[in-house]
Amino acid sequence: MASSTTTNRLILHDEPQTRHHLAGSPVGRRLSLTNVHFRIPVSVLIICALVAVIQNQSQQISAADILQGGDKYSSATTFAYPLPEVELKGIAIELESNAEVEWQRSAYHFQPDKNFISDPDGPMYHMGWYHLFYQYNPESAIWGNITWGHSISRDMINWFHLPFAMVPDHWYDIEGVMTGSATVLPNGQVIMLYTGNAYDLSQLQCLAYAVNSSDPLLLEWKKYEGNPILFPPPGVGYKDFRDPSTLWMGPDGEWRMVMGSKHNQTIGCALVYRTTNFTHFVLNEEVLHAVPHTGMWECVDLYPVSTTHTNGLEMKDNGPDVKYILKQSGDEDRHDWYAIGSFDPVNDKWYPDDPENDVGIGLRYDYGKFYASKTFYDQHKNRRVLWGYVGETDPPKDDLLKGWANILNIPRSVVLDTQTGTNLIQWPIEEVEKLRSKKYDEFKDVELRPGSLIPLEIGTATQLDISATFEIDEKMLESTLEADVLFNCTTSEGSVGRGVLGPFGVVVLADASRSEQLPVYFYIAKDTDGTSKTYFCADESRSSKDKNIGKWVYGSSVPVFEGEKYNMRLLVDHSIVEGFAQGGRTVVTSRVYPTKAIYGAAKLFLFNNATGISVKASIKIWKMGEAELDPFPLSGWSS
After folding, report:
1. How far apart are CA 616 and CA 202, in angstroms?
2. DSSP string covering 63-74, please?
3. Contact at 8 Å (CB) between 541 and 555?
4. What residue intervals traverse the membrane (predicted)?
5. Predicted local distance difference test score (pLDDT) of residue 95
6. Which of 182, 373, 451, 571 could crosslink 122 through cysteines, CB 3.0-4.6 Å?
7. CA separation, residue 354 to residues 160, 406, 586 (Å)
8. CA torsion angle for 577, 510, 67, 523 (degrees, to 10)?
9. Distances (CA, A) of 52 to 41, 46, 460
């Protein structure tokens, strides 16, 4: 690998007039329920009805099961068989109109009005506004023609769409304006480094800058006339060189940025470049870090976290009470991996605290559907905020029919877990709570005996913020002898797999008969030495009757300390569920596509499918309002 790279302009060209378009139209976020019709064969509906009758007749209902909560839940169902009792064969559902899938649109997650969205780019706080740039296809609901959409917000929940920031209109980015990052220079100039997919699909690094950095909206962007500023160095494949990070200044006064790459086909790595003028970069002889057998690294991120407090940090905040997070998005497995370690700012080297949990082989931000994430330091609230995109798991033809694809997560604050010191804490930013209903439903100390399922009557259950805690008798836990050392969420039978100590949790987006459902739950597995390990899982396997949908059991282990209650928070938003266990130590995001459990038909349950323990549950449920996503009224704007 070369120690330096020089760049020269390959083609002289004129700057075409930048094309500006609004990223979407001011249409409503959701169609009326009266416009939704599902073309499911009548025979299937008859079968479903028969199964519901059979299930109702088989339920064992006892007055003793109707615990505290009055008419909040009408009955408690005890089941001695795996959840659900009856599983109908999957149906290949053919969608015939956009209205049939309009219910899948989120109500309070970020997404444009139409078409394809993916990687968040250049998030930043500037002059009173949060800015979010993102990869966007203005012409279709599938990948292609990648343009940078641009939206602004006061709170990262309600958004205004602005004209596109950049479009693919030069030879060096004609196949896509790909992932990039924002940097604010000491003089206040805002710049973007981004990857351009060139006409031959080679990945070239480019520079763009705000025409007027004193404009709070950052409306106009200009590409540097000397682009591209970086070509793949010797030894690096022309498609293995992408996603420049935010720049930071090192102790020698030079600026640094990192990029994702791989060498020898399988060794994922992060390259380090130095610069003094932002147009000429020098490649370090050594990589920041590399891990064998992890493949191509995308969207590399390096940032500090405090070991003593919860405030966010900037790269300049080095010291004895600081750890550094190195993160990469694995191009081969499509997961976002991170590790905790130390950073040498003089030699630009990063070292993991635990080599067995190195980047790409240890911890993940999210054990469900989540990718291409990026953090930024929010100086307005002194915090570090994480964005990522949550892809679809339905067929592309369905995305084309509904006219859109993919959603961004609710932005999360990120801090080090100072109790464990070995993982991060991710938590939805506090602003999302502004969408909570003023009143909430609460169920206290609900006794969940082995094999029990309790419906919670709350009305419509498709837009929710749920906080639930579960208590287990410690003596009962300690006295359990059965070992379950091989348990793993992803290889288990899901929520129907019964153990002595689990699963127990919450069922969301379920229809009344639970033929469709998404259980999110804890499972406690004991080792032969008596110690236990807790898992946090989400079981999509019965989330939809449509057999064309991808369905998995997601999850991972989560640390639970002595004296802690088992707790989870769930953000439910039609076709996306974000789950946070133990205050955000482990996070699991699911995409679900029910055909029956939609709008008013969606139900909520508590369950305990363990065989050997009773669980006491308490739960609060807020209805969530809709976020505002509108075009910015530029005609009346004055800075």
Report:
1. 57
2. GGGS-SSGGGS-
3. no
4. none
5. 55
6. 182
7. 43, 34, 18
8. -50
9. 17, 10, 20
Instruction: Pick the closest to residue 133 from 146, 116, 150 (CA basis).
Output: 150
Provide the pLDDT for residue 639. 60
Helix (H, G, I), strand (E, B) or coil at 634: helix
Question: pTM score, two decimals?
Answer: 0.86
- CA dihedral sign of residues 581, 590, 523, 542: positive
Question: What is d(CA 280, CA 292) in angstroms, rounded to the nearest whole number?
Answer: 30
- CA atoms of 273 and 255, how far apart (whole Å): 8
Contacts of 150 (CB under 8 A, 6+ apart): 23, 131, 132, 133, 161, 162, 163, 164, 165, 218
Q: How high is the mean pLDDT of the chain?
A: 87
Residues 6+ apart with CB under 8 A from 411: 156, 385, 386, 387, 428, 429
pLDDT > 90? residue 417:
yes
Q: Which of 462, 467, 469, 516 lies closest to 104, judged by CA? A: 462
Please write the tens of the pLDDT for every residue from 127-164. 999 999 999 999 999 999 999 999 999 999 999 999 99
| Per-residue pLDDT, 134 | 98
Render pLDDT for 593-633 as a digit per residue (tens, 0 to 9).
999 999 999 999 999 999 999 999 999 999 999 999 999 99
Q: Please provide the size of the chain in residues.
A: 639
Nearest to 113 by CA among 211, 38, 30, 49: 30
- Specify the pairing of strand 504-510 against strand 603-608: antiparallel
Q: How far apart are CA 573 and CA 622, in angstroms?
A: 12
Q: What is the set of active-site residues?
A: 119
